[in-house]
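User: Hello! My lab partner asked me to get a predicted holo structure for this protein. The small molecule is zinc ion, SMILES included with the sequence. Please write out the structure tokens.
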Amino acid sequence: MSKLLNELIESLRCLPGVGPKTAQRMAFHLLERNRDAARHLAKTMERSLDDIGHCQQCRNFSEAGLCDICANSARDSSLLCVVESPADQHAVEHATNFRGLYFVLMGRLSPLDGIGPDELGLDQLVKRLDQGGINEVIVATNSTVEGETTAHYISELVHQRQIKVSRIAHGVPIGGELEHVDSGTLSRAFSGRHLV
Amino acid sequence: MGSPTSQVELQPAYILHNHAYAESSVLLDVFTRDFGRVSLIAKGAKRPRSSFRGILQAFQPLLISWRGKGQVHTLVHAEIDSSLNTLPAKTMMSAFYLNELVMRLCHQGEAMDTVFSRYGDSILALSNPDVAIEAILRSFEKVLISELGYQLVLHNDAESGEVIQSQNYYRYVPDKGPVQVSSDSVQGLVITGESLLALQSDSYDNPRCLKDIKRLMRFVLTPLLGHKPLRSRELYRALQRN
Ligand SMILES: [Zn+2]
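Assistant: Hello! Below are the structure tokens for the protein in complex with zinc ion.
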């Protein structure tokens, strides 16, 4: 196999879930059948890497200093939702009617991986809280051990500033039958029950 | 020379750490009762319909089954054993510290059942937000150090052989034990006889002794842990600053 082709296959393996076989298939497909799309992909990739940085305010990916959401004056800037990742931000934005602003941690506190407050930009979050104008912070980190730890520390930071803080509820999925729900989720749903 | 295929059923275990692995799998560092630390792959654990979802969390007492050859095995079953431990956020960082100690100091495939059972007791105790955290950590460290083969000498002076006296001062000499010194001695780790005796009898009520004991544990653990600092400790400090 040609040296360059080998290099292409190796490069494709940086994608999640792409092993040597898949990478080879992808490379052949791009070269054999879809050179225009491949060229477009290469150019877009290059431009993205050059131009996409982080929003100064929410840390989400953005090619402008402020992302579209942060720059939108119609959003409610008194509500701030804290999420772990751009994917989570996207999920909340599309599944809920939340129209406040976000703060994207780009990770979660992970004591054994050395991911701490600096990596998550918590100083930036604190600055934002101290600027005033935020009435409620909604902590929407994941319901994992690390996500809960993160939620706890963020809640403390918010509390100290006399700002209301809430945590998203976790529980039984819609349409989920109790006997099929895993015990961790069921236990969480039970302890987080509310009056009806 | 292939290693034999192993097959283990419903082994009591705790997850110490997990890493994302490939698209939807998770690589687990697991602490088991009979096999010590084990590396396992939970295939497809991140898929929405995986039977592992919600179960493979640190600090949960689990029963797990695995198969495989060599170093990394495949998890085939996991269920929550006994009651669920929901750790309060207040004690979570301490629980991570225990996990890091086990990961750094216990070897793969080497059973340490006393440490395992103390680990379980400690995690259970940490599920109470009002527990005396320091006492839990120190007594776990003590068991771990002794199971690793570094028995602490806490009852006799390592040189004179005399019984430790509460009011005396001792320097703890590595690989040897406490040696009496004058109270104004500044060299090395000097602590009171009272603190040595408190550690020996697992009494962690006196804050002054507790401070001494913490210093002693750190002194003994540091050479075992090597140069790499404990990340859970660093994170704990970083969070205190905020
Ligand atoms: Zn933004």
